[in-house]
Amino acid sequence: MSSSARTALRLLRPLKVTRSTTAGPSRLPLLTPAIRTFRTTSARSHAPIKPVMAPAAEAPGSVAPSPSTTTLSASEYEKHSNVTMEMLHDQLEALVEEYSPEGANGWECEYSSGVLTLSLGPHGTYVINKQPPNQQIWLSSPFSGPMRFSFIQPTTATSTDSGAQGVWTYARDEVTLGALLDREIRSVLVSEVGQEEADAWEGAGVE
How many angstroms separate the CA atoms of 36 and 190, rounded? Predict the structure, then answer.
């Protein structure tokens, strides 16, 4: 074998790996994968479901008219409200003339531009006024607060029935304007003149 052939064979032999006897085996550093914590959430929020509650009772004066409220034309509203306001004025003015105390605690009744004011001295003041945009009569009472009364006719009648009688009614508890005034003013009379004379009072003059 020629020298060039022997040289070629030596080049083709695998290299002998010599391990160091002084150093320990080479170790690759262990790579610890970073662990990320994921919060699993659904596409839809799991907030507690709140029960559907009925709306709280509205404050006096803020109640819309009952569905049975009669719809009036502008002229019909004026006719019915004017009759009621004039009757109230006549009756409450008579009340003042007959039962008003003397002196600084005297009572007064005034009616102007659709607003009726009844002052009962230390017992407080009533204000009753027309509200054409709402077709209502509004009352501010020193005892029961603000209230709105709508004109309601019997279910068998219509707003065009000239003989039909309607009643100004508070939608929340269906008390009528006349019944409320009778009850509250009569209680004032009881404290001022006694039960017997209070019972003799004719009332506010409207239902």
Answer: 82
CA distance 121 to 107: 6
CA distance 73 to 78: 9
Partners of 116 in the beta sheet? Answer: 111, 128
Q: What is the dihedral of CA 77, 79, 84, 89, to 10 degrees?
A: 120
Helix, coil or strand: residue 43: coil
Beta bridge pairs of residue 150: 136, 169
Q: What is the pLDDT of residue 154?
A: 72
Dihedral, 53, 59, 62, 143 alpha carbons, nearest 10: 160
- Cα–Cα distance, 83 to 85 (Å, whole number): 6
pLDDT > 60? residue 186: yes
Ordered domains of the chain (ranges, CATH): 74-200 (3.30.920.10)
Alpha helices in 100-134 (DSSP H): none
Rounded CA gap, 125 and 146, in Å? 12
Distance (Å, whole) CA 205 – CA 207: 7
133 close to 150: Cβ distance less than 8 angstroms: no
**Over residues 3-28, mean pLDDT:** 54
Tens of pLDDT, residues 161-182: 444 578 999 999 999 999 999 9
